[in-house]
# Entry
Amino acid sequence: MIIYGARPSPFVRKVVIFAHEKGLEHDVRPGGFGQGGDVFAQASPFGKMPALEDGDFLISDSSAIITYMDAIQPRPNLIPTEAKARARTIWYEEFGDTILQPAGMPMFFNRMVAPLLGVPQDLCAADRAESESLPPALDYLEKTLPDRGFMVEDRFTLADIAIVCPLINIGYCSGVLAEGRWPRIAQWIATMRTRPSIAAALAAEAKAIARMRAV
# Structure
């Protein structure tokens, strides 16, 4: 099983952590930004990362890949079966993918990715995202985080993976989460980062992050 994409992408990281939790052996190879070759182009005709190759099966998009992985390896169960818990898990994945990640993306791209690619930075867009777009999403999450430490069912699920991945990227390019306005989020991230699957993913992407910071 091969996952194509850039490790620092929150969507790639989400799939890598999910695969680790499922015990699915996988290799991560470059994909996107002109990399990945014909296989990546076939798996992801619109250049969307991550993409997956599993034998003769090719697919892209993190949610589609996770759905496939969950079907071929049902245990451990990271997507609850109880109706309300399942709905909440899917909502948190949607929140992470379509609200939290887009709110923080201008910060990460313009402060870290653009210099590496040699394209112009829009630092004003990054600053606006940090001061205007991101806080409402963090305010919502600060109120929503359960006291018990997991998003759903008092255990680790896809909901936790989907939320922590974009927050990690925000932490790479901003100190906003360390300023004390969202203490529950800061503590939750610190706890999540100690989980073996997440710690392994972060260790594997550390060199890439170091290169971004060195530009």
Q: What stands out?
A: The chain has eight helices and four strands. The radius of gyration is 17 Å.
